[in-house]
Amino acid sequence: MKCLIVDDEPLARKGVQLHLKKYPELQLAGCFNNATAAAAYLQLNPVGLIFLDIRMPGINGLDFARSLGRQTLVIFITAFAEYALDSYEVDAIDYLVKPIHAERFDKAVLKALAYERLFRESGDTAIEFVPDHLLVRSDRQFIRIALDELQYIEGLKDYVILHLNDQKIITAMNLKQIHQKLPQERFLRVSKSYIVNAAFVKTFDNNIIYIGESEVPIGNGFRDHFFEIFVQPKLIPQKK
């Protein structure tokens, strides 16, 4: 998968380059110190992944991310932790705070590679809804998913990723469309990019819902509704 580094700090660009040496699956196509130059390059040279700073001269990283195509993945790398929630509103797959630690970088890259593989293998997919189940049609086959097994749903541009206990399934549908079809009392929209199955919500704080080893961000515009529901336990279905 081809990738770019877009960061106005030379040392930061060099650091990402050093980390990338352990990943032969990633081909570094270019380094840029501003989003305008990167955007010009992308017009003729599409890439699958961008390591992107946020605070840069000219176009900032958040605005640049909004302009990218649906199959270009973004990992934000910035010195400012306060942009973490904003990053998920533009469908970033991860957010790293400088200085970058190797283990955290590895986790983000492995996630990007897994998502790229999901995109590549998704093919012609669609979802049909039946009581208590989803039928995901892929390559002339149906995958039957019980709603009780669906932990959360992640929106990534024009796709959704269904997160099950031990499997991820990607299909072409936006988050709003799938949420309208699901039982609203069981599946809660918690940000622009995430829907959670309330039965799997066991631990949360003001900004994050913890589902197994996954962290699901709570968007600013969804926080009040989320807490209104979760202070009324009788409204939360219990997982059997």
UniProtKB/TrEMBL annotation:
Gene3D superfamilies reported in the protein's UniProt record: 3.40.50.2300, LytTr DNA-binding domain
Gene Ontology molecular functions: DNA binding; phosphorelay response regulator activity
UniProt keyword NAD present: no
Keyword Phosphoprotein found: yes
Origin: domain of life: Bacteria
All copies of domain Response regulatory, residue ranges: 2-113
Pfam name, any one: LytTR
Keywords (A to Z) from UniProt: Phosphoprotein
Domain HTH LytTR-type: 134-197
InterPro entries, alphabetized: CheY-like_superfamily (IPR011006), LytR-like (IPR046947), LytTR_DNA-bd_dom (IPR007492), Sig_transdc_resp-reg_receiver (IPR001789)
Modified residues (4-aspartylphosphate): D53
Name by which UniProt lists this protein: Two component transcriptional regulator, LytTR family
Organism from which the protein derives: Mucilaginibacter pineti
Species lineage: Bacteria, Pseudomonadati, Bacteroidota, Sphingobacteriia, Sphingobacteriales
